[in-house]
Design a protein that fits this description.
8 strands; 8 helices; binds zinc ion; four-stranded antiparallel β-sheet; alpha+beta
């Protein structure tokens, strides 16, 4: 743990278990189905976590005092090896919006199941996705299609960043609707990645 994390005072049960060394890996958090409610948990269990700002927009809000504008930042985090999170934060200052987005992204960290779902490849290494996944957010729909080794990420910039942070190396993307709305586009990509895990959990087989 770094000095900042040594000074951390956990506020949740999971936080205390990690602080006391009862849980030492991110895999345990997900297999136990526990929810990350403190950003420090992500920093400790994923020490290689990287952070990227996907978008900064201006949002206007009508208040009694007139029009109030704030910045909205969309931030992605990931370890480039199967864990990725996406979040957003609003504030009067850009830097604060990014900080809030970075915290939110850490609380939303998800597991991404990788694989070789490309019929053209069949190498069975986890360089792509195991199967096609799709998801929607706002007016955007995105489809992630497994690609052969060496293809790279055939995607627009926000999708490239998120897929890269998740550790997906080869993938095609198709998108429909208001694809220039970057926040919705980014969340659609993130939700599609979350489905790689959710679609194959034992609970899903029972349902
Ligand atoms: Zn392959």
């Amino acid at each position: 743990m770094s000095s900042a994390e040594m000074e951390w005072k956990p506020r949740t049960k999971l936080g205390r278990m990690i602080f006391e060394g009862e849980i030492t890996s991110i895999e345990e958090v997900f297999t136990e189905g526990l929810k990350i409610r403190e950003p420090e948990i992500a920093n400790i269990l994923l020490p290689d976590l990287q952070e990227e700002v996907i978008d900064i927009g201006l949002v206007q809000k009508q208040t009694d005092a007139g029009e109030k504008s704030r910045f909205k930042a969309i931030v992605a985090v990931g370890n480039r090896d199967g864990y990725v999170g996406l979040g957003d934060g609003k504030a009067k200052q850009v830097r604060t919006a990014i900080e809030k987005g970075a915290v939110d992204a850490r609380l939303n960290i998800s597991v991404v199941r990788r694989g070789c779902g490309s019929w053209e490849c069949g190498c069975e290494k986890p360089h792509s996705l195991p199967f096609e996944v799709k998801a929607k957010c706002g007016g955007v729909e995105i489809v992630l299609v497994p690609g052969p080794r060496g293809l790279g990420l055939v995607a627009s910039e926000p999708a490239k960043i998120i897929l890269g942070l998740a550790g997906v190396k080869d993938c095609w993307t198709r998108s429909y609707g208001a694809t220039r709305t970057i926040p919705s586009f980014a969340y659609a990509v993130f939700r599609a990645l979350q489905k790689t895990y959710r679609l194959v959990t034992p609970e899903d087989w029972v349902r």
